[in-house]
Design a protein that fits this description.
alpha+beta
Length: 709
């Protein structure tokens, strides 16, 4: 961003009531701030042709940028934050666009919305827009344009509420923009700008609606998309169109936009939504016929340059892999979303940790994961290590460790080292003298399950304590590994010793010798908290806790195989939803039982593949919740299948050295292609035959104890 660019907004003398905004959607003061969309414009003519335009732009809260009447992009890149956060984030980001053109005139038009409308929107408490552009001419010269009081501005009266557009409203006169105090800490977004495709319905023909007539048009798409609407209508008199969408169930159709006009429109919506099907409610209130000429979707997603693949002899597994891969694509925006329906911020780290692993084996880009890690660290600094979902902050450490192993990016470890220390010391404050967590802010999140009428979203100690302690052990173990990589022997010893202490206490606190199983938590009384309900007197046993005991080497290694056998064959245990199956499947593989149980467990995704448009959030819904069909956290087969079939293990960070142990696990055949910075790893397997393996020359690979240089 050019240092001469100024933050600008509507003139406070003309628009005094629109000078402040809420911090997030959860801000209790939100009702005080009226919805406003502001327009900004700058134009200039030259006597020579412009060939290239480089643009840096940001806004508070959102912008939509057009150049010479053509849409360029929306933003800014998300600043991050926790679920239900109401604190301003310490950094904001600007988008960068590189464009080619062939004209002698430039016109920039920017629409800015000052209100938060989805969970991942954030503000610094006041609206504004900033932009700088470099125009390169055909003769090689260049000129800068920056936002300033020379730009024109006005309130967009047509957009009077979120999802409400009335093209019949009068437009204000353009006036000079006002330069405002810079309260933002702008950083260049270190990721690529989103790609966009136009998606057309499976069937659609222009719809004519006669005067006084009302029509409902059902529109189907082949998949669920993260998208914006595009609606074109030819008309000469008053009409209204409502656009409702749903992912699967028509009775859940929700009106997202209501558009009123009295002449032809070419409408692009401002709200990203998650669409499998749509309904158009068209009301012709005029005296002349109108025609809906076009209805399509603008599908936005993080750019894809490499693409891994998986195929095997089991069609159910192929579908499960493909559906997870698609969910990953629609959830990768300027942050990893849990789903484009919910659009939660970066507090849902369990979702993003699984998504990042899926990504390493499919699309291979690590930049978005890195930025998610940095933005989460930024939040943890201002919150003193607190996150809404307590267990997820331990998964952030695991996600950080895995990112380093796949990228060899040592710099990021140094950048967040201080956060690791703050986070682990906060968790130490939750523990008793034996190192066991007994007084946390919550035991969330465990799973979308209800047991005896108790939600495992925020369970009492009897249902969540052991799992939280297990994740604490996993976080300590990975943190110790990170400090060892950094050569910080003092912290390595400190957290490694703490990890071993908690493991020992875990076995003393939570192991039931009579059953030969770990139970889910103690039954002691305690003062309840907002997110910790009253404890129960019942002792619970689950696949959750026992899988984690194996995965994090809490259970003795010589007993892990038998423990996994017991929990998979005991029908009395609490069983996970697809999200937590990620950890169960990893534990099965660790215990050496993937051939016996892994494929069988992965085939449980069969019911989820029966709806072909998107990935169902769970096997069964919780009462009153209503899950979606675009949720990436249930996509672990997209990670499990290629990684376990290849037997992939990173031996030295950044693909310098890997281990492959390919197995079919009873399948007739399986083919895997995995992207790396050096090209693709390809493995072809047929039952009873030697595998065919191709690995880039830059990667040292071990295959079943045979080293290939």
């Amino acid at each position: 961003m050019d240092k001469n660019a100024k933050w600008i907004w509507l003139d406070k003398k003309i628009y005094p009531q629109y000078q402040k905004s809420e911090i997030t959607l959860f801000d209790k003061t939100k009702a005080k701030y009226a919805f406003v969309a502001a327009e900004f414009k700058y134009e200039k003519s030259f006597k020579k042709k412009i060939e290239k335009v480089s643009i840096d732009i940001s806004a508070d809260v959102k912008f939509w940028l057009y150049m010479n009447g053509k849409y360029v992009g929306a933003g800014p890149v998300c600043a991050g934050g926790d679920y239900a956060n109401t604190m301003p984030m310490p950094k904001q980001y600007y988008n960068t666009y590189e464009l080619e053109t062939d004209c002698e005139k430039i016109e920039f038009y920017v629409l800015v919305q000052k209100n938060t409308t989805v969970q991942c929107d954030t503000s610094q408490g006041r609206p504004g827009m900033i932009m700088s552009a470099v125009l390169t001419f055909c003769d090689g010269t260049a000129e800068k344009i920056v936002s300033s009081k020379d730009w024109l501005a006005r309130k967009d009266n047509r957009r009077y509420a979120n999802g409400k557009i009335d093209y019949t409203m009068h437009t204000d006169e353009w006036c000079g923009a006002e330069e405002v105090e810079n309260i933002w800490n702008l950083c260049a977004a270190p990721i690529e700008m989103l790609a966009e495709d136009e998606i057309f319905p499976m069937e659609f023909s222009p719809v004519t609606v006669l005067p006084g007539e009302t029509k409902t048009v059902n529109v189907e798409f082949d998949k669920i998309y993260s998208c914006y609407y595009h609606l074109a209508v030819s008309a000469e008199d008053n009409f209204t169109v409502q656009i409702a969408d749903y992912e699967k169930d028509e009775e859940k159709a929700e009106v997202m936009d209501t558009i009123a006009a009295k002449s032809s429109i070419d409408f692009r919506s401002l709200q990203m939504t998650s669409v499998g099907s749509a309904k158009l409610y068209i009301i012709n209130g005029g005296k002349k016929p109108l025609t809906v000429d076009k209805f399509s979707l603008y599908f936005d997603y993080y750019p894809i340059h490499e693409e891994g693949s998986f195929e095997c002899s089991d069609t159910v597994l192929n579908k499960a892999y493909d559906m997870g891969k698609w969910a990953l694509k629609i959830c990768r925006q300027t942050i990893e979303l849990d789903s484009p329906k919910h659009q939660e911020n970066l507090g849902c780290t369990g979702d993003y940790m699984i998504a990042s692993l899926m990504n390493y084996f499919t699309y291979g880009d690590t930049k978005l994961t890195r930025l998610d890690i940095i933005r989460t660290a930024d939040y943890l600094r201002i919150s003193n290590g607190y996150m809404f979902h307590t267990s997820y902050s331990m998964m952030w450490i695991m996600m950080l460790y895995d990112y380093y192993m796949f990228s060899a990016d040592r710099e990021v470890l140094n950048e967040v080292k201080d956060v690791l220390q703050v986070l682990l010391e906060r968790f130490c404050g939750y523990t008793d003298e034996n190192g066991i967590i007994t007084d946390p802010p919550s035991y969330m999140f465990l799973d979308w399950l209800e047991i005896d009428g108790i939600s495992l979203h925020h369970p009492p100690a009897a249902l969540g304590q052991a799992a939280l302690n297990a994740f604490y052990i996993g976080g300590l173990e990975k943190a110790a590994g990170i400090f060892k990589i950094l050569g910080d022997n003092e912290d390595f010893e400190k957290y490694n010793k703490r990890c071993e202490k908690v493991k020992k206490s875990f076995n003393e606190y939570f192991y039931d010798t009579g059953k030969g199983l770990y139970f889910d938590g103690l039954n002691e009384d305690y003062p309840t908290k907002k997110w910790i309900p009253k404890n129960t007197d019942k002792r619970y046993f689950s696949q959750h806790t026992n899988s984690l005991a194996v995965l994090f080497d809490i259970a003795p290694k010589d007993e892990q195989k038998d423990l996994i056998e017991r929990i998979l064959n005991d029908e009395t245990l609490i069983k996970p939803q697809p999200y937590f199956m990620h950890f169960v499947l990893d534990a099965i593989y660790k215990a050496g039982l993937f051939e016996k149980y892994g494929i069988e467990q992965l085939r449980r995704w069969e019911d989820m593949t029966k709806f072909p448009k998107g990935l169902q959030e769970g096997w069964y819904d919780m009462s009153g919740y209503g899950f979606d069909y675009s949720h990436v956290w249930g996509g672990t087969p997209t990670y499990q299948l290629p990684s376990k079939i290849m037997g992939f293990e990173m031996k030295e960070a950044g693909f310098k050295e890997i281990l492959l142990d390919p197995q079919t696990f009873g399948l007739d055949y399986a083919n895997v292609k995995m992207p790396t910075p050096y090209g693709y790893i390809c493995v072809e397997l047929k039952k009873g035959e030697k595998p065919i393996i191709s690995v880039p020359d830059e990667i040292k690979v071990h295959i079943k104890d045979i080293i290939i240089l």
